[in-house]
Design goal:
Layout: H1 11-34, H2 41-68, H3 76-102, H4 112-129, H5 140-164, H6 171-205
Helix pairs in contact: 1-2, 1-3, 1-4, 2-3, 3-6, 4-5, 4-6, 5-6
Length: 206
């Protein structure tokens, strides 16, 4: 790691960790949605909305700190990109839950549980990785595994699309369900963006 003569603002590390922990909360709400009766989904969506607002607050706090700090722990552009990508994950997860409720989807398609399980695992890995930004140690396995999970999510997404277009659903249901699985795929992509940004930061700081 590069030797620095000036002190660095360290609160960013805690804020990134808090943002990632909130994403774990969101992934658990997604898992909860899977086993919930349709009548209970609106309440889950409300809790997800609260988590998404908490994520927005965490992102705004990072941006405020960035704008008011003379010295930052790593490049400003990378701080902005990491915060934005973490926020994107939460936005996509909240959107997926909201769509299920707004469209009054009764039965989620077979295989979507695998998609959500991948997101839950990526959330855990991301939350575990954020504290390591302080030292940049033990991060390689994190970004390798998240990239592997994103590839797995791509495969699951393609299988889900094939299932939706196999003729068992009417056209309107296909449109609704496709939007949900597409947004969950966007969340998987956002996890990869976070991992790639962490890799970039680690390389610069090495």
């Amino acid at each position: 790691m590069r030797f620095r003569l000036t002190p660095r603002e360290t609160s960013f590390y805690d804020m990134f960790a808090a943002s990632a922990d909130n994403i774990v909360t969101g992934s658990k709400l997604l898992m909860e949605l899977l086993g919930a009766e349709s009548s209970a989904r609106a309440e889950i969506a409300e809790r997800m909305r609260a988590a998404e607002h908490a994520g927005d607050d965490a992102t705004h706090a990072i941006f405020h700190q960035l704008n008011s700090s003379f010295i930052t722990p790593f490049d400003r552009e990378d701080i902005y990109k990491l915060a934005s990508s973490l926020d994107d994950i939460m936005d996509y997860m909240e959107e997926a839950v909201d769509l299920v409720v707004l469209y009054e989807i009764e039965d989620l398609p077979r295989g979507i549980e695998q998609q959500i399980e991948v997101l839950a695992r990526a959330a855990e890995l991301t939350a575990e990785a954020m504290p390591h930004l302080r030292t940049m140690d033990n991060l390689t396995e994190y970004w390798i595994e998240v990239n592997r999970l994103e590839n797995q999510a791509d495969q699951i997404h393609r299988k889900l699309l094939a299932y939706l277009f196999n003729g068992k659903y009417d056209a309107m249901d296909v449109m609704k369900l496709k939007q949900v699985v597409d947004v969950l795929e966007e969340a998987a992509d956002a996890f990869e963006h976070v991992a790639n940004t962490v890799e970039t930061i680690a390389v610069k700081e090495s």
